Amino acid sequence: MKNSIRALLSIAIAAVAVSACNQQSLVSPHPAITNISVADAYKLYNENLTNMSFIVLDVRKPDEFSGGHITGAVNLNYQDPLFQQNAAALDKSKVYLVYCKAGTRSAKASEAMANMGFKKIYNMTGGFDSWSASGYPSEK
Asked: Catalytic residue numbers?
């Protein structure tokens, strides 16, 4: 009986450990970054339409940007060799909603910006693909 309880306890602990390892964390290691869903990004976007301290930053390539982007977004290509230099010229005290096509480049760009001293960055997980699929406003 005692061995059965130990075996069950070992299996339960192993299951919890495996489950925890398989979960993808949306928590950024940097305190300046908040990862948010497309729905929450849309809400944030609408709450800040007239806020001059709120910047929507598209970090995709220029041809992707010209194919469609969030209305009012500014393009700063993360893959450009001058990204760090160009980002450093931005106002670090403003609030940035950063996005790309699906979320990978924006996460990397957000991390780079946070390491440069930007104070508040919202990284939109899901990217422009999810934004468009949700029917949220965009322009070309």
From this structure: 100
